[in-house]
Design goal:
Length: 311
């Protein structure tokens, strides 16, 4: 008690004394720090093995012909073997659409399906079995996810922030960027995905949304490791070229013809750049920082969040 009393007396500022404290250093976590090359892919595709209309081989041919490097055919509650559509130079990523009455969850890296009584249970079994749980189409009217329910989840890896099929057919259901910002603002570390939600190669949404993964190679292990680290972007047409962090300054470069927007807590615009290259210096009050690239034709791209911490 005496030691505590003395310590307490010393910590109270005596006349003529100064108190110094070590200030924590603001750190910007860069998910793209490992570098690599960009590989384009899609993870929300249905084939005839699920609710889709096309053979896996036909789906593979279309995406390969249109510049994709990998694909995950995510049939509902069944596993479509990646060997049915993957080829040398074109990687098949094991993915299942774990579909329930309450939600659809992409189980990325999973080759099986398990029952669940609620969304938390679905997230739990996917994580337990080594996969990445991604809530798909969170604004779809049939299985709309409430903000409180999503914020209450533990272990959610990703959220589909753009669903091309819903965006093309149902106004207001395809773009869940606002939901994503709500989760990030509440302190949930969750990554943004985009996908075609393809049912048929005749859909107008085919090729409408995808992800680009920054990885050392396009093999399954490299892609999955980069996905797990958050080293990927989501896109509907715009493309990022590179990201860097120097001290507390984030610099992004997009393809020519793009403008940039740096976004923080609550979806607040931090700064807008008229051009494809720009930087933002973090103050520490932003909560997180993510970057959007926008093309004149409406194409968009989303970086993953640059999370902030003090150490």
């Amino acid at each position: 008690m005496l030691v505590a009393a003395i310590a307490g007396h010393q910590l109270g500022a005596l006349p003529g004394t100064t108190i110094s404290a070590t200030r924590a250093t603001l750190t910007v976590e860069n998910p793209y720090a490992a570098g690599g090359s960009w590989y384009k892919g899609n993870l929300q595709i249905a084939s005839v093995h699920g609710v889709g209309k096309d053979l896996p081989s036909a789906i593979s041919e279309w995406y390969r012909a249109h510049g994709y490097d990998f694909l995950g055919i995510s049939d509902q509650n069944t596993y479509t073997w990646s060997s049915d559509y993957g080829h040398p130079g074109f990687t098949g990523v094991p993915t299942v659409n774990a579909s329930y009455s309450f939600a659809d969850v992409l189980a990325v890296g999973i080759d099986h399906w398990l029952p669940a009584s609620n969304l938390q249970g679905a997230v739990d079994w996917i994580r337990h079995d080594g996969g990445l749980p991604v809530v798909a189409a969170p604004l779809a009217s049939a299985k709309r996810q409430s903000a409180p329910a999503l914020r209450g989840l533990h272990g959610l890896f990703g959220l589909e922030i753009y669903d091309a099929r819903l965006a093309a057919t149902t106004a207001g259901e395809g773009d869940a960027t606002t939901v994503w910002d709500g989760l990030l603002s509440a302190g949930t570390r969750v990554y943004g995905f985009a996908g075609d939600d393809l049912v048929s190669l005749d859909d107008s949404s085919v090729g409408g949304a995808w992800i680009n993964v920054l990885a050392p190679a396009a093999d399954l292990d490299s892609l999955f490791s980069s996905l797990r680290a958050g080293a990927f972007t989501a896109s509907t047409g715009a493309e990022f070229v590179s990201f860097s962090v120097r001290g507390t300054t984030i610099t992004a470069e997009a393809a020519p013809g793009c403008n940039l927007r740096f976004i923080g807590r609550g979806g607040r615009l931090l700064t807008a750049i008229a051009g494809p290259v720009g930087s933002y210096r973090v103050t520490g009050a932003e909560g997180y920082v993510r970057v959007e690239a926008l093309r004149d034709d409406g194409g968009r791209a989303w970086s993953q969040p640059f999370f902030l911490s003090r150490r």
